[in-house]
Amino acid sequence: MQRNKKKGSRKGYTTGANSAAAARAAVIGLISGEVPDEVEALLPNGERVLFPVIDGAVTPDSAHAVVVKDAGDDPDVTDKAHMTADVRILESSSGVIELLGGVGVGTVTRPGLGLEVGKAAINPTPRKNIEENIREVGSALLKRAGIEIIISVPDGEERAKRTLNHRLGILGGISILGTTGIVHPYSTAAFRASVIQGIEVAARQGQDTVVLTTGGRTEKFVIRSLPELDESCFVQMGDFLSYALDTVVDQGIAHVVIGGMVGKLTKMAQGETITHANRNAVNTGLLADLAAKLGVEQKICDEIRDADTARFASERMEEIGLTAQFHHALAEKVIATLSGRYPGKFSIKVLVCDFDGNPLAQAFKEIN
Q1: Residue 44: which pLDDT band, with cuts at 50, 70 and 90?
Q2: Number of domains into which the chain is organized
Q3: Are residues 264 and 176 in the same domain?
């Protein structure tokens, strides 16, 4: 008897893998005169996977194929995107494969990504994988002619608005990505990689400051607070504090600014390297101790210690008129914890905002 898969366990395939499948199907159509209804494509990790082809068309010297990206159970802005390949014969360029980006594939406008400025945002591994698939099925054709392939995503520009591509200098569409070809369900790898890449881009553009935020509200807050900084300095790290700071050290960045609210900052202050809510609970005892050092009466400190959330402490401090002092103390505790983990590596500034993005406090420590 077949058992149902556990919810959330279904893997999917990257934009790169789906593009390679579409390209392979289109080249098969170019050679045979008919685009197949499904195509077995080679993934970068060496696996072979069968992809349905939802649309195909052939003319004497060109072909067109579409594969719908299935992200599996991983939430992804590119899920169900129509990864489209249009190929044509280059009669006077035997052996050449020319890979271009079409509508909905972003264009690289800044250095630092390892991609040529002015070219399509098709990463090296997907680029190689697309060419491998084309050479496997088009070897005979390539002996006498070249093949031009254009990868496009009809609604890619709209989808890209929900990514950080613009921050990296990729404009006009999504990136074609993937190192193995597989998207693991609810994998954090893609987001973690984007955090690291964002910091690397800032470093390669000569920035000496990186501003790390935990989400959209805190990012808007720090952008307003630091208008003098270039857009490339701002990186949404989400919950990946340790990966972000390790990359800062690797890249030799001198100054770190962290923007956050009471919950995530408490996690940082207590030494959590990944600040996701589903990991270790927030240490409300730490907040109670901070309140006690400010002279707050024992009854309120006990309430804070017994509470389930850090937000409760923030609200109690507001009620007794100690908002700025309390959040300043928390910011200093974050700095003390991180300075202990990364001694002398970078200066740290912590900017604290409330849940509406209004500034509450800040603290700063120079490099030792």
Answers
A1: very high
A2: 2
A3: no
